[in-house]
């Protein structure tokens, strides 16, 4: 035996013990990892030995290494070995290692169950104690289940040392194995009255923790705890009991009444701050709950309130204490009170303001939190003044930023409720901009904007302040650190621009906004600068035009023209775009100025209109129109080009077109076939129909418009000359042109959309003629050429989309000034026209314009062709008018210029740089007898009303060199906005059922023509397609370029034709019906 | 209580006791974060901070920080008392305890803590009882704790008695 001990100690002399390891690690600071890996190797060797002392030593070292962050999970089994040593020394080390290293997923824990059970029942109480302590750290659900009974037995152990531990560990067992709670609870309850205070305290602890999780089950213990509370003098126990009551009172209000006295006594008597704090907290929490609407108010309210006041008094004592910890906790508790009883806190304003001066930042932050609830109209300025002082003094950026947000929070709370003087607030905001390195520039900026917009009276002052800010912008931009604050310039520039009429010295501000230094600001701020410089410019013009001296105004324009190019070169797209638009605008204005034209009114109209604040809830007050589903997609979300093709159809019928066709066949094939046959027969007999070829029937969906293209009824009396180019070439050329236009227009539309979005002033963009100039041909060209390769691939989906949508069909026509006189001539050209059209596929309606009373050198045919409504249907659509010019005289015609007087609604698109009244030169000359075609694009705002545009064509007859002028009128009828769109009867029925359409009807008397002629006429003149025809009744359908559905039901009996119509746009419908009526009144 | 950490001014962990089951990875992460946060605080600041959804209570004794994480409803002041009580126990046991005592006898420090707290709850509020239990358990053990003389090669800062310095601070 003695020998063995000697041998053991000799072994250990050569081993490193823990102290050697600690020292070794310290001595190998440079190569700690290497040293430790050799140590671990040694430990592995030691663990292989039989000597338990060596093993225990190794495990002890491992425990130390584990704390340093090394993985020792591989030694888990060795730990179990050491745990099962019979010697307390090693067992203790083993259990310590296990409690530090084991967790629920350690597998070897399963092996420990029996060992632990053995240790729990060991005669040595320290063995048992060590096992219980270890178990508390690594108890798993399995261990809890297997050992629950053993531990329960230990709760009644003779030694309090064991009882105490057993009681405490039961809590962990309950958590892991809740089923054990029921059988163990009676014994646990007994322990509340254990003679040993330690055991008693342990039982209170456990029950308190349990009750916190589920208070309901522990209400019955309240009397027992009440007794304990009044008898115990142990603060630790008292705190737990009070906490327990805090959990129980919400369930049993009567308990609150009973508690008042002992709690008040404790608050008055105790010297232990921890206990006092616990009491106060419980009272506050209890008061919250009692005051909450969930529980009926009970007679104790007043009582509680008095006690509550006592608490606040006590908190004041805490806050006044020199101990930072108490101060902090006092403020923390105060902030809890603030939520429910702001008044109680307000009376301690002085104290809380004092805390703002505290040297401890965490205390200052707590005090700041409290300030929020303490301001009133009276003290706001005073409090903010104090905060501003702190802002100046504050060292850390974090704390200063916190102060800044708090100042703004406090001032802006409940819609600036406490601010009596907004000039003061603006000054505060301006002062805050002087803060260095704050991140909250945008916060200040949004406040400035908000106040300037919402408080009208303050604008003069605000504008003056902002102008100063702009003037001193270099203070903010100079320092890189101040980056965050330059956001303020965003607000300043906007306010100065928007409310520029209040500026004292607008010229100076304009100069400040156009300084080259501005180009160093972030892009979004530059953009606002540019935009608002334009507003300012408008105001300046207005002021200066009032003067007799015109030079001032011209100088202003020159300043703009000089400075803006810097922004045109900006790398930021938005800045660039805005700057180039405004630069063009200013150049144009300058041109006018030089002609002594007064432009200020028009320029200022660009930015007219008050920006009114809108309440956040205002939108809710607008009733949603019936049948409008705000959540539904207006258009299917774009995914692939294919799905885009389906889009227009989906409006009518959800199912695949082929399916719908198949269903037709199934449901009523015979009938349908019969009808189709009848219809074919009808159409065959009808000279106005183009007969559908069988193949076209099949590809109907791909090119639905084809068979529905009505044959043009030729109204031309002039023989149609073949245009200068060979037919096919021209066709190709037209096609190319058209595609190009499409692309360009698409681009333009996108551009426009973008512009409107970021302009935030869509209206203004739309209202002025300049908005059209925004879309610059130069850009178009650039884009088209640059993106040619891409454009080719783009072409396909776009094309098929159009085809599916209904092919384009004609917006039409010019208006014959005196159709009667033209009539005979027109007729004669009928055949040729028709031929051309058939080949073309692209329908054109032509009407000759001109002055028939006079010898004219030129015939003008005006063709209409609708263009492109893809994308947003609401976005102003464009109409392309094709004009054929035919030279009827014997002289060469040149320098033709086409011009139209724009109306508000419709405008001719002109290239960039040209004014709203400039003409477009026709890109060709005409030799005698030759005709050629030119296309002009018009933009339409609204298509519900017919439009008439007056225009002139000027040209020079070569030999005579005389200027000739031809006046004409373009008549855009409502029918010309309709596109012949095929529609199946089921889709048609659905549409009618949908109930979104408004009804209207018209009666035509004395129509003396066969029914199919009548239909053909409607089809041709008004671009309808026949959906279905039964006897003397037919349903017809058409769609506007903006997507309105127009449905007609035409019935005839004798000479009376009645047309019932439905459309989602009543005005449009009314006009279309009027036009139909007119068509028939003429015959 | 969720866990207790002891670490030095240099951020070296001296003792850790976890009363909630967490993976080693999480433990390491939490330790790193907390040590950084606490060390960054200025000496005059109060002992409490809100961290994640827990409250952290810490106190510095000479070169060692004692740091506990407690839950929302727990009492910060009593936690401070627990920390102080633990330091007193260490002091009584080692006799003017210093950081080195805890480093070289870290298992003893654990044993004392385990006699004082169990499963995160105070199990014995009487200092005498705790010390008596430890002493009696030690009687069963063969190895005596190492004492200051046995680690002479250390800087004096680690030898500062935790509690005395604490008392001096209090008088200031």
Automatic annotation (TrEMBL), chain A:
GO terms for cellular component: AP-3 adaptor complex; axon cytoplasm; endosome membrane; Golgi membrane; presynaptic endosome; terminal bouton. SUPFAM superfamilies: ARM repeat (SSF48371). It holds the Pfam family Adaptin_N. InterPro entries: AP3_complex_dsu (IPR017105), AP3D_dom_metazoa (IPR010474), ARM-like (IPR011989), ARM-type_fold (IPR016024), Clathrin/coatomer_adapt-like_N (IPR002553), Mu_AP3 (IPR058898). Residues 667-803 form the AP-3 complex subunit delta domain. The keyword Acetylation applies. It is found in: Cytoplasm; Golgi apparatus membrane. Residues 646-682, 732-747, 792-805 have a biased composition (Basic and acidic residues). The keyword Ribosomal protein does not apply. It is a peripheral membrane protein. Keywords: Acetylation, Coiled coil, Cytoplasm, Golgi apparatus, Membrane, Phosphoprotein, Protein transport, Repeat, Transport. Residues 630-690, 722-778, 790-850 are annotated as: Disordered. GO terms for biological process: anterograde synaptic vesicle transport; Golgi to vacuole transport; neurotransmitter receptor transport, postsynaptic endosome to lysosome; protein targeting to vacuole; synaptic vesicle budding from endosome; synaptic vesicle membrane organization. Residues 748-764, 827-836 have a biased composition (Basic residues). SMART domains: BLVR. Belongs to the adaptor complexes large subunit family. Part of the AP-3 complex, an adaptor-related complex which is not clathrin-associated. The complex is associated with the Golgi region as well as more peripheral structures. It facilitates the budding of vesicles from the Golgi membrane and may be directly involved in trafficking to lysosomes. Involved in process of CD8+ T-cell and NK cell degranulation. In concert with the BLOC-1 complex, AP-3 is required to target cargos into vesicles assembled at cell bodies for delivery into neurites and nerve terminals. This is AP-3 complex subunit delta-1. It comes from Cyclopterus lumpus.
From TrEMBL, chain B:
Pfam families: Clat_adaptor_s. The keyword Membrane applies. GO terms for molecular function: clathrin adaptor activity. PROSITE patterns: CLAT_ADAPTOR_S (PS00989). Keywords: Coated pit, Cytoplasmic vesicle, Golgi apparatus, Membrane, Protein transport, Transport. Residues 1-140 form the AP complex mu/sigma subunit domain. It is found in: Cytoplasmic vesicle membrane; Golgi apparatus; Membrane, Clathrin-coated pit. It is a peripheral membrane protein. One of its GO terms (cellular component) is AP-1 adaptor complex. InterPro entries: AP1_sigma, AP_complex_ssu, AP_mu_sigma_su, Clathrin_sm-chain_CS, Longin-like_dom_sf. It comes from the Eukaryota. Adaptor protein complex 1 (AP-1) is a heterotetramer composed of two large adaptins (gamma-type subunit AP1G1 and beta-type subunit AP1B1), a medium adaptin (mu-type subunit AP1M1 or AP1M2) and a small adaptin (sigma-type subunit AP1S1 or AP1S2 or AP1S3). Binds to MUC1. Belongs to the adaptor complexes small subunit family. This is AP complex subunit sigma. It comes from Cyclopterus lumpus. The lineage of its organism: Eukaryota, Metazoa, Chordata, Craniata, Vertebrata.
């Amino acid at each position: 035996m003695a020998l063995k001990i000697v041998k053991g100690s000799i072994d250990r002399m050569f081993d490193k013990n823990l102290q050697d390891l600690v020292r070794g690690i310290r001595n190998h600071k440079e190569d700690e990892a290497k040293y430790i890996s050799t140590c671990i190797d040694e430990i592995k060797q030691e663990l292989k030995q039989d000597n338990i002392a060596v093993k225990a030593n190794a495990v002890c070292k491992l425990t130390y290494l584990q704390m340093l962050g090394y993985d020792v999970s591989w030694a888990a089994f060795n730990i179990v070995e050491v745990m099962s040593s019979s010697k307390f020394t090693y067992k203790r080390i083993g259990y310590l290692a296990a409690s530090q290293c084991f967790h629920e997923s350690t597998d070897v824990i399963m092996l420990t169950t029996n060992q632990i059970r053995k240790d729990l029942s060991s005669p040595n109480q320290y063995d048992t104690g060590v096992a219980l302590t270890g178990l508390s750290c690594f108890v798993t659900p399995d261990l809890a289940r297997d050992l629950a009974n053993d531990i329960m037995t230990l709760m009644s152990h003779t030694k309090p040392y064991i009882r105490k531990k057993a009681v405490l560990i039961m809590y962990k067992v309950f958590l892991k194995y809740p089923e054990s709670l029921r059988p163990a609870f009676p014994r646990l309850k007994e322990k509340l009255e254990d003679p040993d205070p330690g055991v008693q305290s342990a039982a209170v602890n456990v029950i308190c923790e349990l009750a916190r999780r589920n208070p309901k089950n522990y209400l019955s213990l309240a009397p027992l705890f009440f007794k304990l509370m009044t008898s115990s003098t142990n603060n630790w126990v008292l705190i737990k009991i009070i906490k327990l009551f805090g959990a129980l009172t919400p369930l049993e209000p009567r308990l609150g009444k009973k508690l008042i006295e002992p709690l008040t006594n404790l608050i008055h008597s105790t010297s232990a701050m921890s206990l006092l704090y616990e009491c106060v907290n419980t009272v506050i929490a209890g008061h919250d709950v009692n005051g909450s609407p969930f529980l009926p108010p009970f007679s104790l309210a007043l009582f509680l309130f008095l006690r509550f006041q006592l608490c606040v008094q006590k908190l004041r004592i805490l806050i006044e204490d020199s101990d930072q910890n108490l101060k902090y906790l006092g403020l923390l508790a105060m902030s809890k009170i603030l939520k429910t009883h702001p008044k109680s806190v307000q009376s301690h304003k002085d104290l809380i303001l004092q805390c703002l001066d505290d040297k401890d930042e965490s205390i200052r932050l707590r005090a700041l939190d409290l300030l929020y609830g303490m301001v009133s109209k009276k003290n706001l300025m005073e409090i903010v003044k104090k905060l501003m002082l702190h802002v100046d003094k504050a060292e850390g950026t974090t704390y200063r930023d916190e102060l800044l947000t708090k100042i703004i929070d406090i001032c802006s709370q409940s819609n600036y409720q406490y601010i009596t003087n907004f000039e003061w607030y603006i000054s505060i905001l301006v002062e805050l901009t002087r803060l260095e390195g704050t991140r909250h520039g945008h916060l200040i900026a949004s406040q400035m904007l908000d106040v300037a917009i919402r408080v009208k009276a303050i604008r003069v002052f605000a504008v003056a302040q902002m102008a100063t800010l702009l003037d001193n912008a270099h203070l903010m931009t100079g320092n890189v650190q101040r980056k965050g604050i330059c956001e303020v310039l965003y607000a300043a520039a906007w306010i100065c621009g928007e409310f520029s009429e209040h500026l004292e010295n607008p010229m100076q501000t304009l100069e400040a906004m156009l300084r080259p230094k501005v180009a160093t600001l972030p892009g979004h701020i530059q953009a606002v600068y540019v935009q608002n410089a334009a507003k300012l410019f408008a105001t300046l013009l207005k002021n200066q035009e009032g003067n007799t001296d015109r030079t001032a105004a011209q100088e202003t324009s020159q300043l703009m023209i000089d400075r803006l190019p810097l922004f045109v070169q900006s790398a930021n797209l938005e800045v660039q775009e805005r700057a180039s638009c405004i630069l063009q605008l200013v150049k144009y204005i300058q041109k006018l100025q030089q002609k002594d034209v007064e432009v200020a009114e028009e320029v200022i109209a660009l930015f007219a209109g008050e920006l009114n604040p809108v309440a956040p809830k205002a939108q809710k007050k607008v009733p949603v129109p019936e049948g409008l589903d705000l959540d539904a997609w207006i258009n299917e979300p774009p995914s692939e080009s294919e799905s885009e093709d389906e889009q227009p159809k989906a409006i009518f019928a959800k199912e695949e077109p082929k399916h719908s066709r198949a269903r037709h066949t199934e449901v009523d094939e015979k009938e349908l076939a019969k009808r189709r046959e009848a219809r074919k027969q009808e159409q065959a007999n009808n000279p106005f129909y183009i007969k559908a070829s069988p193949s076209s029937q099949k590809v109907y969906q791909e090119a639905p418009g084809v068979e529905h293209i009505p044959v043009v009824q030729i109204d031309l009396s002039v023989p149609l000359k073949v245009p200068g180019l060979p037919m096919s070439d021209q066709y190709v050329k037209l096609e190319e042109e058209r595609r190009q236009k499409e692309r360009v227009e698409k681009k333009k539309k996108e551009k426009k959309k973008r512009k409107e979005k970021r302009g935030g002033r869509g209206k203004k963009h739309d209202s002025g003629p300049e908005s059209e100039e925004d879309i610059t041909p130069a850009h178009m060209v650039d884009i088209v050429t640059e993106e040619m390769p891409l454009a080719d691939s783009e072409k396909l989906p776009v094309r098929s989309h159009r085809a599916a949508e209904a092919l384009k069909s004609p917006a039409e026509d010019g208006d014959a000034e005196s159709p009667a006189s033209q009539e005979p001539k027109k007729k004669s050209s009928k055949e040729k026209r028709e031929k051309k059209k058939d080949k073309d596929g692209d329908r054109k309606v032509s009407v000759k314009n001109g002055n028939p009373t006079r010898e004219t050198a030129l015939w003008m045919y005006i063709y209409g062709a609708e263009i492109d409504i893809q994308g947003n249907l609401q976005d102003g659509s464009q109409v392309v008018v094709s004009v054929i010019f035919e030279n009827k005289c014997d002289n060469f015609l040149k320098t033709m210029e086409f011009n139209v007087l724009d109306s508000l609604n419709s405008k001719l698109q002109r290239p960039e740089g040209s004014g709203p009244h400039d003409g477009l030169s026709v890109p060709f000359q005409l030799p005698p007898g030759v005709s050629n075609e030119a296309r002009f694009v018009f933009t339409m705002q609204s298509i519900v009303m017919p439009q008439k545009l007056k225009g002139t064509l000027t040209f020079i007859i070569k030999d005579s060199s005389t200027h000739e002028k031809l006046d004409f009128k373009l008549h855009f009828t409502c029918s010309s906005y309709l596109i012949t769109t095929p529609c199946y009867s089921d889709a048609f029925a659905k549409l009618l059922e949908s109930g979104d359409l408004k009804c209207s009807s018209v009666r035509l008397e004395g129509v003396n023509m066969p029914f199919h002629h009548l239909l053909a006429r409607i089809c041709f003149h008004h671009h309808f397609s026949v959906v279905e025809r039964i006897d003397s009744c037919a349903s017809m359908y058409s769609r506007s370029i903006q997507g309105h559905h127009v449905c007609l039901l035409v019935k005839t009996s004798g000479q009376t034709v009645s047309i019932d119509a439905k459309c989602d746009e009543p005005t449009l419908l009314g006009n279309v019906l009027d036009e139909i009526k007119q068509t028939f009144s003429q015959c | 209580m969720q866990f207790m950490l002891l670490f030095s001014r240099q951020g070296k962990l001296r003792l850790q006791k976890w009363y909630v089951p967490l993976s080693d990875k999480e433990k390491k992460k939490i330790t790193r974060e907390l040590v950084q946060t606490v060390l960054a605080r200025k000496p005059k600041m109060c002992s409490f901070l809100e961290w994640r959804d827990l409250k952290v209570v810490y106190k510095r004794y000479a070169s060692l920080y004692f740091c506990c994480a407690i839950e929302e409803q727990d009492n910060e002041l009593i936690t401070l008392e627990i920390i102080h009580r633990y330091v007193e126990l260490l002091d009584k046991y080692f006799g003017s305890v210093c950081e080195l005592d805890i480093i070289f006898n870290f298992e003893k420090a654990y044993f004392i803590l385990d006699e004082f707290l169990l499963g995160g709850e105070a199990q014995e509020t009487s200092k005498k009882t705790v010390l008596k239990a430890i002493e009696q358990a030690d009687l069963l053990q063969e190895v005596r704790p190492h004492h200051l003389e046995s680690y002479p090669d250390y800087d004096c800062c680690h030898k500062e008695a935790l509690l005395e310095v604490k008392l001096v601070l209090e008088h200031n």
